[in-house]
Amino acid sequence: MKPFYIILLGSFLVLSCGPTEEQELKPFELFFAQMSEQCGNAYPGRLTLAPEGDDMLTGTEMLIVHFRECDDDQLKLPFHIELEEEGDWDRSRTWIYTKHEDGLELRHDHRKPDGSDDDVTMYGGYSVGEGTAVRQEFQSVPRTEETGIFRGWRIEIVPGERYTYGTIRGEEWSWSVEFDLSEPLDELPPAPWGHE
Q1: Which one-letter DSSP state was computed for residue 38?
Q2: In a domain, 6, yes or no
Q3: DSSP one-letter code for 114
């Protein structure tokens, strides 16, 4: 009987010393998991980079990202923009991250105030390269083919510190916004346009 117990004990030790679940996850899966940890929270943000002549944001308005809808394979993050002059908010944009077996997909859901699709919506791309648990990049194939230079989006997340969303041209940021993850907002924003 002793050999049986020795084999059993040996099997237990091999299993207990094997790779942990975290070690088995790929970088994009770790990235997605860190994004998922923010679910249910909203955070304040600001414009950090814009090219000369870009007037989408002034740099003084309040920005909010809300990690609003989350499941095992998809995250929906509404991006709310304060309209300072009107005293209202632009709630037209939602970032959608979908996890696939071989990487991530980023889509931009843009809506009109009545909830209908904007003229330009659901554009985006797939993650490229291995990336890291902190940074993933997504390629816009049409924009890259048009210019011959890599065009797309770079997303970074450092839990407890920051979430950064931006566009890239080549290896450089071309536009970016950053959200402070150190403390979630007490009051959550309402649903984005077209969502319940």
Answers
A1: T
A2: no
A3: T
Q: How many domains does the chain have?
A: 1
Asked whether residue 131 is domain-assigned, the answer is yes
CA-closest candidate to residue 168, choices 128, 120, 196: 128
Is the distance from CB of 148 to CB of 34 less than 8 angstroms?
A: no
Q: Does 5 fall in a domain?
A: no
Q: Hey, CA dihedral for 155, 156, 159, 162, is it positive or negative?
A: negative
Give CA–CA dist 15/164, Å, rounded.
38
Find the CATH number of the domain harbouring 132.
2.40.128
How confident is the model over 48-58, as a mean pLDDT? 95
| For range 26-34, the mean pLDDT | 98
pLDDT of residue 142: 96
How large is the average pLDDT for residues 141-157?
A: 97
E-strand ranges in the chain read 42-49, 63-66, 69-70, 74-83, 88-100, 103-110, 123-127, 135-139, 151-158, 162-169, 172-180
Q: How far apart, in whole angstroms, are the C-alpha atoms of residue 191 and residue 196?
A: 6
The C-alpha angle with vertex 31 and arms to 135 and 186, in degrees rounded to 5, equals: 100
Is residue 2 a part of any domain in this protein? no
The token pair that represents 142 in the structure block: 């049409």
Q: Whose CA is closest to 63, among 77, 45, 49?
A: 45
- State which residues form the domain around 99: 22-180
> Is the model's pLDDT at 19 over the cut of 50?
no
